Amino acid sequence: MKRAQLSSIVLLICLTAVPSWGTMAKPTSMDGWLHIVWGDSDPAAPAAQQHRKILLTDDAGHTTELTMSNELLRGGVFRWNGRRVRVFAAAEVAASQPVPVAALRLMADPRAPGEELGGVSGSQPWISLLCKFADVADEPKDLAFFEGMFANQPGGLDHYWREVSYETIDIVGSTAIDWVILPGIHTSYVPTPGSGTSADLTQLFDDCTAVVDLFVDFSNGGTPFAGINLMFNDVLDCCAWGGGRFATLDGISKTWRTTWEPPWAYANEGVIAHEMGHGFGLPHANNWDGDGNPYDSPWDVMSAATSYAVDDTTYGRLGKHVNAYHKDQLGWFAAERRYEPAADSDTTIQLDHTALAESSNYQLIRIPIAKSDRWYTVEARFRSGDYDASLPGDCVIIHQVDPNRSEPAWAYDADDPPANFSDNEGTMWRVGELFSDGAAQINLRVDAQTDTGFVVTIITGDAGNLFEDGFENGDTSTWSDAIGGAL
Question: Which of 182, 264, 334, 415 is the most exposed place for a label (fewest CB within 10 A)?
């Protein structure tokens, strides 16, 4: 695997902050809330692509689009997304253009603890606003469809998020508002196809929330909605979008987890779950082929959202679970379900599959890679439950996590070359197979399968005793065709 060398970041001297950016004659700084918003093209499109916007909203509510390198976001999306920051412009720009950023730093956040993006727990009620363009009369789905989408029963999003989070979160209190008419026509928000520009997400948010403000209490009687799904009756641009938006609604100033959804998105609930995942702060997952396409892993709704997904007669392809790294980042694994081996250790444990709601065994193994800021996560996946039943197989999945990547978790593939889509045997680790990162002195063997997962042995440090049990003298026909070597 090729690894990019990340350049050092040199912070500029802070200049006087201004409320917003227009044409600038010299580098300028501004404080505000930074949000990463991901755009996802239709999974049915010939070549699905991802897009990303980085938006900064200042205290006056003005939103500016930024451009910055992955190197500048070193430390990962979980470090910066939803945080109050000071950004330093790199060059003079026109008012209509995204502002290139030379440096940024975290600032003190005046919000109450827990309002920023990061760990997610408790009730997370969402409201879906159904917004029609002034010149488009179609109503693709009725109000009952969107209300039923939030149900606490298989196929409903409350049931889904409860299962995925082990009851750490729910979306009780979620609701939907019937179709309202936006003040603008379709082309006032959405660019001409092929123009290379994206929909005006800021104006769509502002107008959609303003139209319903007379009869929607965004404070929700003292328990503000956590998120807002903006459901539109025509296509936006390339994509459905998910992330966050800082705004003041009904006296509540906060980050509203936000999605922008065209009709093709709510035709399959897995897409809605994917965009809500972005609203919860999750980036994409990826596989091992390094092609830049983050939609080629069936093991996470944050990758190939509708591949190997359970079908529902009303809501199409449903979401599946997110990978163990994503669950861990959101704080959904209890301490007793997480295992991290000590250095120079040899341990055998039982690893239960991650769709299992009640478990007295581990469900996540986290293995640090010495002398780096990377690690491996190990999880078991079974074709089981209401959302993982259509996965490619019952197996162990290993992700290498690099928080400095735009998609930190990559499903490791032992095939050479790696498969374009990780439903292959090189990604699925089964009984008798050995994963080995020789350079990091990390070895993992799948010893046995149980009714609820697998028995695995993890050896870190000196692996000289790995084969003392005669494993190397066994029937090698049961070994993997793709034994993991040094990375």
Answer: 334
Q: How far apart are the first and last CA of the chain?
A: 7
Residue-averaged pLDDT of the chain? 87
CA dihedral 208, 210, 211, 215 (to 10 degrees): 120
- Whether the Cβ atoms of residue 84 and residue 106 lie closer than 8 Å to each other: yes
- Phi and psi dihedrals of 381, rounded to 5? -125, 130
Give mean pLDDT, residues 159-183: 98
Bridge pairing between strands 175-181 and 126-132: parallel
The tokens for 197 are 């520009």
Residue for token pair 């600038």: 24
pLDDT digits 0-9 by tens, 413-471:
999 999 999 999 999 999 999 999 999 999 999 999 999 999 999 999 975 454 444 44
Q: What is the H or E stretch that residue 204 is in?
A: helix 201-211
Residue 303: strand, helix, or coil = coil
Q: How many CB atoms lie within 10 A of CB 183?
A: 12
Provide φ and ψ at 189, rounded to 5°.
Answer: -115, -30
The domain ranges of the chain are 122-317, 335-478
Span 215-274, pLDDT tens digits = 999 999 989 999 999 999 999 998 999 999 999 999 999 999 999 999 999 999 999 999
Torsion, Cα 286 479 417 484, to 10 degrees, reads 60
CB 184 within 8 A of CB 133: yes
Given its phi and psi angles, is residue 77 left (phi above 0), alpha (psi -120 to 50 degrees) or beta?
alpha
The alpha-helical segments, DSSP class H, found in 116-196 are 143-148, 157-164, 186-189
CA 285 – CA 293 distance, rounded (Å): 10
Average pLDDT over residues 102-124: 75
HSE-CB for 134 with a 13 A CA cutoff: 10
